[in-house]
Amino acid sequence: MINNPALHEVPRSRPASPIPLQRDASILDWLEGTGRLLAREVAEPDYRGAEEEINELMSGEDNSFETDDDDDNAMQLDD
Asked: Region Disordered: what ranges (predicted)?
C-alpha cells in the first residue's frame, strides 16, 4: 500500500480539522513553488498576409450604409 500523507480517512461523525492559515501565502507563490506557473512565450503578431485586406477596407467608398430622408416608413417629427 502506498502512503500518501495528503490522503487520509476520517469518520463522518468526526468534524473536519481546519486547514492551517498561512499569512504570506498567495496563489502565485503556490504556483511558482509547485512548478505549475509557466512563462508565457511572447509571439509577435504577423500582419503580412492581412495587409491587402486592411488596405482594401481603408480605401474606397463604403456604400453599405445609406441614409434616405424620403423614406415613407420613417417617423415624422412635429416642429
From this structure: 1-20, 55-79
67-76 pLDDT, tens per residue? 665 555 555 5
DSSP H or E segment with residue 28: helix 27-34
- Of the candidates 24, 26, 51, 21, the one whose C-alpha atom is nearest the C-alpha of residue 37 is 26
Give pLDDT, residue 14: 92
Q: How far apart are CA 58 and CA 61, in angstroms?
A: 9
With cut-offs at 50, 70 and 90, classify the pLDDT of residue 17: confident
The set of cell numbers assigned to 23 is: 499569512
**Alpha-carbon distance 14 to 18, whole Å?**
12
Compute the distance between CA of residue 43 and CA of residue 59 in angstroms, rounded to an integer.
29
